[in-house]
């Protein structure tokens, strides 16, 4: 049996604007993981997919063509030159909450690609894994920028501009994030679709907001590369103000953001598609426990603390 993993991710700056060609910054979140296993099993009578968290167990040949798990399996097997007519059991499970901005779809797909490649003795480069997962992301999202598959496949902080080569990016001083879940599932596709409709209705206004988000992301990169952590917090607050203008925040996200700030966070914002899902707060070793407690008291379903390095 072969087993492979993929981490979750959090977007620090630039969500939504990244779909329109502006830069964004994202980091892997290793505290949450997807896992895929592959085993040869004649009794499977074909390629069987077991999605434990979804309580699903089905054969590839019975699934609709847009089933994301099957789609990923088919693309990967084709890529490594393996037939679709073999007996395999592929089991998937994940601790990444679904539709919460932490990249669950991309992480599950990445774990499948890695497990299949490994099972058949192939070493796929991160950019190849990323491009296979990008195809699956299109099923989930419609018009993904590609940031989720990139940060998850490369397993490192990324400064990402769509359709451009990934630039090396260094975190000079590690920093801490508290990540809190509103508990509200919010598919990225819906938030991205709503922003697209609003942009189509008033392109000038939305282009200006995207430009401002892009400028903040460039400044955030400089702050991360120079270790100016206090500045980073202010930039997160500024990014959140612009995300409100894009109408992707929500009362639940706002109350967690207020609670984090009251607990002493240097900055706080939603992360990912928004509307629900997760928010992130910049904390220090001194404030992390207080901020986490404030977030829980304000109704966070879960709080993870992670170091970005
Ligand atoms: C989703 O993690 C981030 C969005 O910017 C969508 C995308 O980049 O594809 C909201």
Describe this structure in words.
With 309 residues, the protein is of the alpha+beta class. The chain has 2 domains: 2-168, Ribosomal Protein S5, domain 2 (2-Layer Sandwich); 175-308, Alpha-Beta Plaits (2-Layer Sandwich). The chain is 42% helix and 24% strand. The chain is built from 9 helices and 10 strands. The protein has helices at residues 68-79, 104-119, 126-141, 147-154, 188-201, 203-226, 229-245, 251-262, 288-297; strands at 2-13, 24-40, 47-51, 56-59, 88-94, 158-160, 175-181, 267-271, 278-283, 302-308. Strands 1, 2, 3, 4, 5 and 6 form a 6-stranded mixed beta sheet that branches. Strand 3 and strand 4 (56-59) form a beta hairpin. The chain is globular. The mean pLDDT is 96. Bound molecules: (R)-mevalonate. (R)-mevalonate (MEV) is lined by residues 11, 15-16, 18-19, 141, 144-145, 147-148, 188, 192, 272-273.
What is the name of the CATH topology of the largest domain? Ribosomal Protein S5, domain 2
| Structural classification | alpha+beta
DSSP, total strands: 10
Number of domains: 2
Heterogens = (R)-mevalonate
- SS element count, helices: 9
Largest sheet entry: 6 strands, mixed
Architecture of the largest domain, CATH level 2?
2-Layer Sandwich
Helix content: 40-55%
* Portion in beta strands: 15-25%
- State mean pLDDT (0 to 100 scale): 96
Poorly predicted regions: none
* C-alpha geometry: globular
Give the N-to-C terminal Cα separation. 33 Å
Q: CATH top level of the largest domain?
A: Alpha Beta
Task: Output the radius of gyration.
Answer: 19 Å
């Amino acid at each position: 049996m072969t087993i492979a993993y993929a981490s979750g991710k959090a977007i620090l700056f630039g969500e939504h604007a990244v779909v329109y060609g502006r830069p964004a910054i994202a980091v892997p979140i290793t505290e949450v993981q997807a896992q895929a296993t592959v085993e040869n099993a004649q009794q499977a009578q074909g390629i069987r997919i077991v999605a434990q968290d979804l309580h699903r167990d089905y054969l590839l040949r019975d699934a609709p063509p847009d089933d994301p798990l099957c789609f990923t399996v088919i693309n990967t097997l084709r890529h490594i030159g393996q037939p679709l007519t073999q007996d395999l059991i592929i089991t998937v499970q994940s601790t990444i909450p679904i539709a919460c901005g932490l990249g669950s779809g991309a992480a599950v797909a990445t774990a499948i690609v890695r497990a299949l490649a490994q099972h058949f003795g192939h070493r796929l480069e991160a950019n190849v894994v990323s491009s296979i997962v990008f195809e699956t992301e299109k099923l989930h999202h419609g018009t993904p920028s590609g940031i989720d598959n990139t940060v998850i496949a490369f397993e490192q902080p990324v400064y990402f501009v769509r359709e451009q080569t990934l630039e090396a990016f260094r975190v000079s001083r590690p920093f801490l994030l508290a990540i809190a879940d509103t508990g509200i599932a919010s598919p990225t596709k819906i938030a991205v679709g709503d922003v697209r409709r609003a942009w189509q209705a008033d392109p000038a206004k939305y282009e200006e907001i995207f430009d401002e988000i892009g400028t903040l992301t460039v400044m955030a990169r400089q702050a991360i590369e120079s270790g100016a952590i206090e500045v980073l917090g202010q930039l997160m607050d500024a990014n959140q103000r612009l995300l409100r203008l894009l109408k992707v925040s929500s009362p639940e996200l706002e109350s967690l953001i207020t609670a984090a700030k009251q607990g002493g966070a240097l900055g706080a914002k939603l992360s990912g598609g928004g509307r629900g899902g997760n928010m992130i707060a910049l904390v220090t070793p001194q404030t992390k426990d207080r901020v986490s407690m404030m977030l829980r008291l304000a109704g966070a379903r879960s709080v993870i603390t992670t170091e970005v390095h």
